[in-house]
Design brief:
- By secondary structure, this protein is α+β, with helices and mostly antiparallel strands.
- It has 3 domains: 80 residues, Double Stranded RNA Binding Domain (2-Layer Sandwich), CATH 3.30.160.390; 109 residues, Orthogonal Bundle (DNA polymerase, domain 1), CATH 1.10.150.130; 190 residues, Intergrase catalytic core (hpI Integrase, Chain A, Orthogonal Bundle).
- Helix content is 46%, strand content 11%.
- The chain is built from 17 helices and 8 strands.
- The chain has a 5-stranded antiparallel sheet with strand order 1-2-3-4-5, covered by helices on one side. Strands 6-7-8 form a 3-stranded antiparallel sheet.
- The longest helix has 20 residues.
- The protein is elongated, with a radius of gyration of 29 Å.
């Protein structure tokens, strides 16, 4: 008996319950008014179709399973099936596909996502890699081969994406089992199953590096960027000056900004670390914000023409047009390299300016402050460097020595 297949005793029990019951891959038992009929169900031309195999008393469980396997192989090869095909009768139990169950699960999970972007990423991963492979397949029939067909092509080249895809497929199939739409083990489970079929990828190979501009070229790039008058250009300037993440920048609200104190307070809900973060604004950042046009009735700093805020792709598309091959996130690396190579600011000040989580538990326990004054000196030095002032390099070095003392 294969995984997910019912036993003869379980089939006898189901024969007393009206409904459509899954017995094995593609094989169902239709029970109505005391009569039980073996049926084979499959997707033909995008819709569920049903093939009659005979009554429960006419075929043993083993014979029915074997007959269903033969028909499944024919359907897979595109051959005609020598059994009359009929559409599922009206009023019967609806055959839920993997795609339909995934979409229902996604809708149920929406209220729990703090950021709608995460919800979109969740379903888009399935739409891109899983739905084309087995989206229209009955969820009760999705097996290991189907899961591997979706994972294998990207397992080594896009491992992070593949890992998330596997987790999301597993979640959909678990939900289907909880709803009684499938039985047996989860074919997307990692431990004790897929870990024996897919190669392990070393942590070093998993690291995704963002293409970054050499820090020496950033001032010239900023000068060129300032020649453009668009919301995406202003947002990218602000991203460079603050060294913050794309998502954090585009979600900025005026209520978070205090121009008089040159301060940007980002609430915990918008931070990757889930901790409130204070960003000291350089004179250059304050000047940029002061000159920005505001949209009536909106608190968004970087508002869109058709949406409340600019798209999370707006800055990247602008950058691609100016410097193909680079990423917006890479400017955080440019900032980090500049600070490490041309200033004397301590590494912990640089890391805190980037809002990185503290990996060492002991260090995190003892370092309760946010080094704000030292970070203010760092960000002003960065702003002066980007401005291209003659003494910016010397000032950065001096500020760094002061901050370290």
């Amino acid at each position: 008996m294969t995984k997910g297949q019912l036993t003869a005793q379980e089939v006898r029990k189901l024969s007393r319950v009206d409904g459509l019951h899954r017995v094995a891959t593609g094989l169902y038992l239709r029970v109505r008014g005391g009569s039980s009929l073996w049926t084979f169900r499959s997707m033909v031309n995008g819709r569920a179709s049903e093939y009659s195999l005979g009554g429960l008393g006419d075929l043993t469980l083993a014979d029915a399973v074997a007959r269903a396997a033969e028909l499944r192989a024919k359907v897979k090869r595109g051959e005609p099936v020598a059994v009359r095909v009929k559409a599922a009768p009206a009023g019967d139990i609806k055959v839920e596909t993997f795609e339909s169950v995934a979409l229902q699960l996604w809708e149920s999970m929406k209220p729990g996502w703090k950021n709608p972007k995460h919800g979109d990423q969740w379903i888009n991963t399935l739409r891109t890699y899983a739905f084309p492979q087995f989206g229209r397949q009955p969820v009760g029939e999705v097996g290991t081969d189907a899961v591997l067909a979706a994972l294998s092509p990207i397992w080594q080249t896009k491992h992070e994406t593949a890992t998330r895809l596997r987790q999301r497929i597993e979640a959909v199939l678990s939900a289907a089992k909880a709803r009684g739409l499938r039985t047996g083990e989860n074919p997307a489970a990692w431990r004790g199953h897929l870990d024996a079929l897919l190669p392990r990828i070393s942590k070093k190979r998993r690291v995704k590096h963002f293409e970054a501009m050499d820090w020496r070229g950033v001032p010239a790039f900023l000068a060129a960027l300032r020649q453009r008058s668009s919301m995406s250009a202003w947002a990218l300037q602000f991203t460079l000056l603050t060294a913050m993440r794309t998502g954090t920048v585009i979600g900025t609200r005026w209520e978070e900004i205090d121009l008089a104190r040159a301060l940007w307070v980002i609430p915990a809900a918008r931070m990757k670390t889930q901790v409130e973060h204070r960003v000291p604004l350089s004179q250059q950042a304050v000047a940029l914000l002061s000159a920005l046009p505001r949209q009536e009735g909106s608190d968004a700093v970087f508002w869109g023409a058709r949406k409340p805020t600019i798209s999370n792709m707006a800055m990247l598309e602008l950058l691609r047009g100016m410097r193909p091959g680079l990423t917006v996130h890479g400017f955080r690396s440019s900032f980090s390299d500049w600070a490490a190579e041309s200033t004397h600011f301590p590494q912990q000040v640089i890391e805190m300016a980037l809002a990185h989580a503290i990996g060492n538990a002991v260090e995190a326990a003892y370092r309760r402050g946010d080094l704000f004054d030292k970070r203010r000196a760092l960000m002003q030095a960065w702003g002066d460097y980007l401005e291209g002032s003659a003494d910016a390099g010397e000032a950065a070095a001096l500020d760094g020595r002061d901050a370290a003392s």
